[in-house]
Amino acid sequence: MILLILACIFTPYKLEQAVQQFDQQELIDSLQNGRHGYVRERAAMGLQRISPKRQIPNALHALYACVSNKNEFDFVRKACVQTLSSWNDEKLPVLVVDAIQEVNEETRYWMAFALRARSDAQSRALLDSLKNDSDPILAYSVRQWLEE
User: Is 38 a residue whose pLDDT tops 70?
Assistant: First the structure.
């Protein structure tokens, strides 16, 4: 029992240390191999934090796999999408189109939000298709984003 408690305390500390030390490989490994969803989510957010605007090429494959993984927790997929969005990744619209119908309403909102500032045809087409979505909050928000 004590070991379990220590593991729950040490893991977030280890991830925070990786962010503070700009340890990309530790974060990528945690994203790919973390046993718990909160570890993978924190790793994805940590990658964005250590490189807010510029891509980390070694991390792209792990982030793509995260978004595409139907068995991954929705909140982890959302964190991966947000990181790719901040890097303005060109594959993001394709990944979101494939993933958006597989996740819960909150994650669908954040995936659409990640595309709101993009001007490519695929992002615009997806957002247009969401203007009359069954989720009224998402539909209203998309209409607002497209009017701006």
Answer: yes
Q: Measured between alpha carbons, how far is 141 from 83 in angstroms, rounded to an integer?
A: 21
The domain locations on the chain are 2-147
Sorted by sequence, the CB contacts under 8 Å of residue 147 that are 6+ apart come out as none
pLDDT over threshold 90, residue 103 = yes
Q: What is the rounded average pLDDT of the residues 23-35?
A: 93
State which fold the 2-147 domain adopts.
Answer: Leucine-rich Repeat Variant (1.25.10)
Long-range contacts of 90-96 (CB under 8 A, 24+ apart): 90/120, 91/64, 92/118, 92/123, 93/118, 93/120, 93/122, 93/123, 93/126, 94/122, 95/64, 95/67, 95/68, 96/67, 96/123, 96/126
- How would you write 127-142 as a 3-class SS string? HHHCCCCCCHHHHHHH
Token pair 């909140």 is at which residue? 75
Q: What is the pTM of this model?
A: 0.89
Q: Which residue has the tokens 């619209």?
A: 93
